[in-house]
Design a protein that fits this description.
The chain is mainly alpha-helical. It has 7 helices and no strands.
Length: 149
């Protein structure tokens, strides 16, 4: 059975990964626009390799997350620990998205429109992974546990 939720989740993570790569190419103004912080933008302006390395690492992680979604959807071969990975990926996206709630309650002056929009986007990513994982869960049992003894 085709899991459109996990397919969508994979493409969302691919898009996020490519956006991070584009930010490296775009330079300091892109770091500022996408909320990486002034310190990262200034480091990029100085020619430091740190912003590029950090952003490339995030892009790589997001690409791996996409592979896990595609694996669970049957697009690519089954990856190890696919259920565990999907639960952790879902949790990271949901926690990042929901981090806005305590921030709004405790330090609303730190919340700008970018923070709200990015949190809602990431929350949508997490919800997409959550629904897809839930739908795929029975099918994603360990191959060893589905064999009769």
């Amino acid at each position: 059975m085709r899991n459109n939720w996990l397919i969508a989740a994979g493409f969302l993570s691919v898009a996020a990964s490519l956006l991070h790569v584009a930010t490296i190419i775009g330079g300091p103004d892109w770091y500022r626009f996408f909320g990486a912080g002034e310190e990262m933008a200034r480091a990029a302006e100085r020619g430091s390799s740190i912003p590029g390395l950090v952003t490339a690492a995030i892009a790589a992680i997001l690409a791996i997350w996409a592979l896990y979604a595609f694996s669970a959807a049957g697009f690519v071969r089954r990856l190890p620990l696919v259920r565990t990975a999907l639960v952790l990926i879902t949790a990271v996206y949901l926690v990042r998205g929901l981090a806005l709630v305590p921030l709004l309650a405790l330090k609303p002056q730190l919340v700008d429109s970018f923070e709200i929009v990015s949190s809602l986007i990431v929350l949508g990513y997490g919800a997409t992974y959550a629904v897809g994982t839930w739908l795929a869960w029975p099918r994603l049992r360990s191959p060893a546990s589905s064999q009769s003894v």
